[in-house]
């Protein structure tokens, strides 16, 4: 099980400073969608150059032009690129084919997917690398989490790795770990903590014990 730090509400210098504090405790750095909107793919390049030993995920949430957009993120240094589960199969195929050329990975974000199990089976057959259940900021504000969805996709996914994102905190991490995802994605649960280093370190410990 790996830990991904999601960076959403920072600029490039702030992102670098945050990663420097917790680099020993995380496996993947996510350049979040808001950061890509504000800073462009330069943010991916800046973090990959500064922390070459960490994997970098570009949270582009690709919805169309899968091959092209994945190509641009990979050129910028991304190891993993996100594509939306609600995208057309042709978009997913284009993304998977493009990433495979350089042994990079596609993580499909299941945000807004209605029939999670059925779509997860289809995505698994399309060869995506990760399937991620996700309660986005707006549904988190309505009290939603994705713990049950994680259990549901674990039942049907045979090849892809599974991931979970959205509002995970130290207090809820044990419940997440019990469902055994391959990747746990945490943003505010680390970056909003009073002691960022301690939060990341405790999360890593819980994950290692899990
Ligand atoms: O993907 C995300 C969200 O849609 C904003 O772009 C976040 O990175 C993801 O939800 C993880 O962040 P937290 O919910 O703060 O843990």
TrEMBL record:
InterPro entries: 3-hexulose-6-phosphate_synth (IPR017553), Aldolase_TIM (IPR013785), HPS/KGPDC (IPR041710), OMPdeCOase_dom (IPR001754), RibuloseP-bd_barrel (IPR011060)
Any one of the GO BP annotations: L-ascorbic acid catabolic process
CDD domains registered for this protein in UniProt: KGPDC_HPS
Domain Orotidine 5'-phosphate decarboxylase: 2-203
GO MF annotation terms: 3-dehydro-L-gulonate-6-phosphate decarboxylase activity; hexulose-6-phosphate synthase activity; orotidine-5'-phosphate decarboxylase activity
Protein's pathway: One-carbon metabolism; formaldehyde assimilation via RuMP pathway; D-fructose 6-phosphate from D-ribulose 5-phosphate and formaldehyde: step 1/2
Reaction it catalyzes: D-ribulose 5-phosphate + formaldehyde = D-arabino-hex-3-ulose 6-phosphate
Coiled coil: none
Origin: domain of life: Bacteria
Keywords attached to this entry: Carbohydrate metabolism, Lyase, One-carbon metabolism
Pfam families named among the record's database cross-references: OMPdecase
E.C. number(s) listed in UniProt: 4.1.2.43
Family that this chain belongs to: Belongs to the HPS/KGPDC family. HPS subfamily.
Listed name of the protein: 3-hexulose-6-phosphate synthase
Organism encoding this protein: Paenibacillus nasutitermitis
Lineage: Bacteria, Bacillati, Bacillota, Bacilli, Bacillales
């Amino acid at each position: 099980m790996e830990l991904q730090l999601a960076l959403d509400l920072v600029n490039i210098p702030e992102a670098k400073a945050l990663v420097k504090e917790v680099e020993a405790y995380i496996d993947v750095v996510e350049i979040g969608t808001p950061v890509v909107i504000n800073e462009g793919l330069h943010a991916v390049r800046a973090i990959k150059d500064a922390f070459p030993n960490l994997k970098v995920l570009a949270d582009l949430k690709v919805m169309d032009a899968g091959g092209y957009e994945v190509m641009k993120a990979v050129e910028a240094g991304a190891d993993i690129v996100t594509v939306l589960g609600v995208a057309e199969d042709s978009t997913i195929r284009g993304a998977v084919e493009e990433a495979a050329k350089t042994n990079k990975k596609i993580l499909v974000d299941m945000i807004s997917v209605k029939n999670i199990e059925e779509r997860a089976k289809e995505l698994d057959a399309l060869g995506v690398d990760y399937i991620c259940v996700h309660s986005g900021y707006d549904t988190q504000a309505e009290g939603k989490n994705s713990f049950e969805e994680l259990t549901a996709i674990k039942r049907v996914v045979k090849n892809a790795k599974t991931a979970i994102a959205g509002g995970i905190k130290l207090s809820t991490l044990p419940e997440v770990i019990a469902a055994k995802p391959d990747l746990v994605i945490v943003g505010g649960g680390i970056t909003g903590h009073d002691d960022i280093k301690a939060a990341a370190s405790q999360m890593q410990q819980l994950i290692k014990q899990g």
